[in-house]
Specification:
The protein has 268 residues and is an alpha+beta fold. It folds into 2 domains: 21-85; 108-260, 2-Layer Sandwich (60s Ribosomal Protein L30, Chain: A), CATH 3.30.1330.60. The chain is built from 9 helices and 5 strands; from the N terminus they run H-H-H-H-E-E-H-H-E-H-E-H-E-H. It has helices at 16-58, 66-72, 108-117, 119-123, 142-145, 158-169, 194-212, 237-243, 253-267; strands at 127-132, 135-141, 175-180, 220-224, 245-251. It has a 5-stranded mixed beta sheet. The longest helix has 43 residues, at 16-58. The N and C termini lie far apart (105 Å). The relative contact order is 0.10.
């Protein structure tokens, strides 16, 4: 008589628990790692907050701690290690910089050169210089360059004008001459208004630069602004004296390019 076959083992319907347990374990590990990372960021944020608070309390002379500098980054090329500085998901994306146009001239060296060459005139209050978005502005004070109510340049100022002409020759930038007055109305035998006086003084500087020192007239423009662009209050004698001037503006080439681009877009 044949031997009976052994009955098959009962089927295990709980094998899915093994996979489920593995999944839960991996999910738990993931959240542990995320929690640990968030605690690190909080700790680093506390360091930054404490350093900034200390700097504000003790003044601007305090240096940034190395740990904070490492997080924030301190130069153009130093990206630091803060989350916003890191590449990758959630970090700041690197945007390649376009090279500056070749015909843009850096005007800061020109300012430094003139500050040195015209040091005596600046100290005497004959000149004022400043960098503005539109370019390098050199203000010729009326009290040093023109008689009151007149447009004839004082011959004693020719050495100063010559220094300005020598600098302009080395630059390709356009030059704008702007005549300015104070708010006191003028009416004499030559000029009926401050508008005429401001234009005439700008033209006088133009004729000296281009006639006497042989600069190219095509680079120049002349504007009379009367009292519409004061640099000081017209309520005091000192303020009115500062407002009576001719501004020689070495125009920033970048502004010219931007203006041309805007005009081109408007015409389309």
């Amino acid at each position: 008589m044949g031997r009976k076959k052994a009955p098959p083992p009962p089927e295990n319907h709980e094998r899915w628990l093994v996979s489920y347990a593995d999944f839960i374990t991996l999910l738990f590990a993931f959240f542990v790692v995320m929690f640990a990372s968030s605690q690190t960021d909080k700790s680093r944020a506390k360091q930054v907050s404490a350093a900034v608070e200390k700097a504000l309390k003790e003044g601007h002379s305090i240096s940034v701690p190395p740990a904070v500098a490492k997080i924030l980054g301190g130069t153009v090329d130093d990206k630091g290690q803060g989350n916003a500085m890191m590449r990758g998901p959630g970090g700041a994306q690197h945007v390649p910089k376009e090279p500056p146009p070749e015909n843009i001239v850096e005007l800061l060296p020109s300012l430094q050169r003139l500050n040195k060459e015209l040091e005596d005139e600046i100290k005497a209050g004959k000149l004022e210089m400043r960098l503005e978005p539109r370019g390098l502005v050199i203000s010729l004070r009326e009290s040093a360059f023109f008689p009151s109510g007149g447009d004839v340049l004082d011959q004693a100022t020719m050495p100063t004008i010559q220094k300005l002409a020598q600098l302009i020759k080395t630059l390709p930038n356009p030059i704008q001459l702007e005549g300015h007055t104070d708010s006191v109305p003028i009416h004499n035998a030559r000029f009926k208004s401050n508008w005429e006086l401001s234009c005439a003084r700008g033209i006088a500087v133009l004729e000296t630069l281009c006639g006497t020192f042989q600069l190219d007239r095509d680079r120049f423009s002349v504007v009379g602004r009367a009292d519409t662009f004061p640099v000081a209050s017209n309520d005091t004698p000192e303020g009115r004296a500062r407002n009576r001037r001719v501004d020689l503006v070495i125009v920033n080439s970048l502004n010219i390019q931007n203006s041309a681009a805007v005009q081109a877009e408007v015409r389309k």
